Amino acid sequence: MAVTKEQVLACLEGVPSPEGTPLPRTGTLSDVVAGDGKVFFSITVDAAEVKSWESVRKRAEDAVRALPGVTSALVALTAERKAGAASARPGPAAPGGARAAPRGEAMQGVPGVEAIIAVASGKGGVGKSTTAVNLALGLAALGLKVGVLDADIYGPSLPKLLAIKEKPQTLGGTRLKPITRYGLTVMSIGFLIDEETPMIWRGPMVISALTQMLREVEWGALDVMVVDMPPGTGDAQLTMAQQVPLKGAVIVSTPQDLALIDARRGIAMFKRVNVPVLGIVENMSYFQCPQCGTRSDVFGHGGARHEAERLGVPFLGEVPLHMTIRETSDAGLPVVATEPDGAHAQIYRDIAAKVRDQLRGASGGRAAPKIVIEA
Ligand SMILES: Nc1ncnc2c1ncn2[C@@H]1O[C@H](COP(=O)(O)OP(=O)(O)O)[C@@H](O)[C@H]1O
Ligand SMILES: [Mg+2]
Q1: Cβ atoms 225, 110 nearer than 8 A
Q2: What is the CA(331)–ligand 1 centre distance, in A?
Q3: Which residue has the CA at smallest separation from atom 2 of ligand 1?
Q4: Which ligand sits closest to the CA of 334?
Q5: How far apart (Å, rounded) are the C-alpha atoms in residues 246 and 237?
Q6: Per-residue pLDDT for 209 more than 80?
Q7: Which range has the worst mean pLDDT, 31-40, 329-338, 341-350?
Q8: Which own/partner pairs from 58-63 qualify as long-range (CB within 8 Å, at least 24 positions apart)?
Q9: Which atom of ligand 1 is found nearest the CA of 285?
Q10: pLDDT tens track for 276-327
Q11: From residue 104, how far is each of 47, 178, 223, 363 by CA, in Å?
């Protein structure tokens, strides 16, 4: 028997909010989509309270998953900016670019690597890593030789997203041999920094770890290296953006207002360090029913496209919130590699093609990049 919306709501009565109110009575729930054993809904809370709600989201998801007849449950936690909250629109740069942090003058490229691009987001959990991996696979599907560098100190994702358990071997005692997966050459900060390392230590270690990952890894010849950046726009991110000789940045955002504010900050950060923004990807753009394919714009989709237009930044595409993307991603079976004929893979390949085209443009007509363009 397929589970009903009413059953889901009844079960959520047993999940309390951080204040102890049963979830369905908190006014935070979206409509509950329940069809053929698959359940989806979102919890929308004030931005300042997101942290305390993460465990509620998890408990709700677990509770629904445990209901008889439920095969999978997806509960999204989304944040809402309070009306009247300060706008985070980046201030204008000082005349003469005085605020612009200099990009490391001696910042050299990585030998053999044609273009390094960052995948970034203003905040975590928007699907940055999922996008980075599938974009990398999309670029590879276009015939490019692609590497992925996981530089997300707060949550290295590549070991999980690509199901990598082995540690990279050292070559001649000094250089590291990257891991190869689905045709991608891969290196993760997760291989170098222990998960148990307290965050306070990670910061200072990051730059040296990053330099090591760029310079002391046998990347071989690559057309593109995709860097999964740490989320946010603080000092750590800025320093990293300056440390890596980036050809461009791809910003991942969800459609909500708050995520867009973060995306705006991200764009401002890259502009400050003179890294061209190759475009914005709207992730979890709309909810697509796994059975009937019907789409519902649970988050008011289209925000990122609009924002991109407003900021004069290319819009690269919309990725739906879809169970398959989550499941494949979390199982280390990225959808572009494992379901190459599916609609999701096509979406990522289209995004990849736009990124490739942007990269051609970003070379500014100087020496043409050695990127192979498939007719
Ligand atoms: N388009 C999508 N549809 C469904 N789930 C997604 C989608 N994109 C990401 N996810 C899921 O959301 C969670 C966060 O994604 P992740 O890529 O790790 O984000 P980030 O790197 O920004 O923290 C993961 O469980 C991932 O599988
Ligand atoms: Mg991540």
Answers
A1: yes
A2: 12
A3: 321
A4: 1
A5: 13
A6: no
A7: 31-40
A8: 59/15, 60/12, 60/15, 60/23, 63/11, 63/12, 63/14, 63/15
A9: 1
A10: 999 999 998 888 777 787 877 766 667 888 889 988 999 999 999 998 999 9
A11: 35, 26, 22, 19
CA distances from 129 to 109, 132, 145, 202 (A): 23, 5, 19, 19
Tell me how far apart the alpha carbons of residues 101 and 117 are, in angstroms, rounded to a whole number: 19
319 lines ligand 1 (CB under 6 A): yes
Residues whose CB is less than 8 angstroms from the CB of residue 229 and which lie 6 or more positions away in sequence, other chains included: 118, 119, 120, 121, 128, 151, 152, 237, 240, 241, 249
Report the SS3 class of residue 19: coil
Going by C-alpha positions, the residue among 132, 134, 128 that lies closest to residue 116 is 132
44 vs 24: CA distance, rounded Å: 12
- Work out the number of other CB atoms within 10 angstroms of the CB of residue 232: 19
Please provide the DSSP assignment of 265-322 as one string. Answer: HHHHHHHHTTPPEEEEEEEEEEEE-TTT--EE-TT-TTHHHHHHHHHT--EEEEEEE-
Give CA–CA dist 14/20, Å, rounded. 10
User: pTM of this prediction?
Assistant: 0.71
- Choose among 253, 329, 251, 316: nearest CA to 285: 253
Bridge-based pairing of strands 179-181 and 184-188 is antiparallel
Q: Does the beta carbon of 121 sit less than 6 angstroms from any atom of ligand 1?
A: yes
Residue found by looking up tokens 């609009």 in the block: 306
pLDDT cut 90: percent of the chain above it = 44
